[in-house]
Amino acid sequence: MKLILPMSRHRMERVVCALLVAVVGAATLAAEAPNFEQHVSPIFKQHCVACHNPDDAEAGLDLSTAQAALAGSSGGDVVKAGLPDSSPLVLTMTHHEDYPEMPPNKPMLAAKEIKVVQDWIAGGLLASAGGQSQLREMTFEIAAGSSQRPEQVAFPVGWPVPASPQPNAGKIASPAIAMAASPWANLIAVSGHRSVSLYGDKDSDGGAKLIGSLDFPEGDVQDLRFSANGQLLLVAGGIAAKTGKVAIFDVATGKRVATLGEEYDAVLSADISADHRYVALGTTSKLVKIYAAESGELLHRIKKHTDWVSVVRFSPDGQQLASGDRNGGVFVWEAESGGIVYSLDEHKQKVTALSWRPDGAVLASAGEDGTFVLWDMKDGWATRAVKAHVEKALTRYSRRTGVLDITFAADGTLLTIGRDRWLRSWKVDGQPLKKLAALEGLPLRLGYVSAANRIVVGDFDGQLTWYDHQ
């Protein structure tokens, strides 16, 4: 249930559209995934098997049976369950510039035929109707992801509230460039002009109740993060091409307890480990920096990214650190040593957000390519790549593709917002769950408030909107 904003005629039309899309989507989900025997084999027999069969397996590839196709070629796997867009077989069929064109010296296969193969891969590489899926199990137990609630939940007491008149209900003074939700309190932090405002439950007008604000004179706020126990709030930012800092505040008192970093550009992202030992920074210098939170000592200066480090996030236990960059790269590091754990290559454009599942077993990455990827942290395997917010541009200069933020809810479901102006939810395994809301403004940040089981969306127009998570 939405808690603020009157419903305009335009919005009513979008909501009706959302309901119609949801009905159609449900019917699509009900359809069975393509299988090799009935759907894929006829395509391969027509276009591929003449050169890729048991007797004449060019490049060591046999496409005559599902088992043979899964065995791959002399160069390795040609299909990756759940990952059609990065499967070499699809890349050759779509004439990707880095792969040989298949079939050779012939036109590309019809789009509907390629889609059958893509859907077969995305659906788990079924050999036959009712066959066993090759997709990994993506189960989640809520108890496994529940960290211990602190004895006393941190909540602002006696914070200064700006004396100037407050904007309309649910409205903040500037775009919601950064936003964070407390893991335990009914509390969100939102960036402002060289400041941070904290909002609690709805006020008498149905909007956001302003609890207090903090000054960040170092510059514009780029990222906000609560510590795992909710006692600390990190503020990262600075002045472009001049300086960058990370400030740490005590949530209860509003006092600044530490200032870290000495950057020559604004800090793009920051996070603090669960035990408060480490603070990580993402920078425009392509570096990930890890500091000792207490002493401020720079412990690790990690140079692996090829572009600006857009986001850094510690795992729930604080043992690992994930980082993403503007070129689509994602890496996982050991927090203590700074050593690399995984190099995760799936996104083709900027990584906009990272979120760890509450149990730490899965990392979700989101990108401007419109997809989110679920990574199994046992071995760094991409279990799903989901085209979550991909829509054709309305005009030459408009852009409707891109996942702008992603977060896990307490029950393991995923929440996303995108350039297509939709708020969506997804099952634990990445399958679509609901189109929750059609958004009027361009959404920038997404928060899940576990204490109230609600979702908060902040947009470019400075609007904060609350939704019940169902």
Q: Would you summarize the structure shown here?
A:
By secondary structure, the protein is mainly β. The protein has helices spanning 9-30, 36-47, 66-71, 88-93, 111-122, and strands at 179-181, 188-192, 195-202, 208-215, 220-226, 232-239, 243-250, 256-263, 269-272, 278-282, 287-292, 298-303, 309-314, 320-325, 329-334, 340-345, 351-356, 362-367, 371-376, 381-387, 403-408, 414-418, 422-426, 432-438, 443-449, 454-459, 464-468.
Figure out the total of helices. 5
* CATH top level class name of the largest domain: Mainly Beta
CATH superfamily of the largest domain, please? YVTN repeat-like/Quinoprotein amine dehydrogenase
Distance between the termini: 9 Å
Oligomer: single chain
Proportion of beta-strand residues: 35-45%
Domain unit count: 2
CATH topology of the largest domain: Methylamine Dehydrogenase, Chain H
Strand order of the largest sheet: 1-2-3-4
The computed structural class is mainly beta
Helix content: 10-25%
Shape: elongated
Organism: Stieleria bergensis
Pfam families: PSCyt1, WD40
Keywords: Heme, Iron, Metal-binding, Repeat, Signal, WD repeat
Protein name: WD domain, G-beta repeat
Describe the structure.
By secondary structure, this protein is mainly β. It folds into 2 domains: 36-122, no CATH class; 150-468, YVTN repeat-like/Quinoprotein amine dehydrogenase (Methylamine Dehydrogenase, Chain H). 12% of the residues lie in helices and 35% in strands. The protein contains 5 helices and 27 strands. The protein has helices at residues 9-30, 36-47, 66-71, 88-93, 111-122; strands at residues 179-181, 188-192, 195-202, 208-215, 220-226, 232-239, 243-250, 256-263, 269-272, 278-282, 287-292, 298-303, 309-314, 320-325, 329-334, 340-345, 351-356, 362-367, 371-376, 381-387, 403-408, 414-418, 422-426, 432-438, 443-449, 454-459, 464-468. The strands form 7 sheets. The protein has a 4-stranded antiparallel sheet, with no helix packed on it. β2 (188-192) and β3 (195-202) form a beta hairpin. The chain is elongated. The N and C termini lie close together (9 Å). The relative contact order is 0.11. Mean pLDDT is 89; it is low at 1-30.
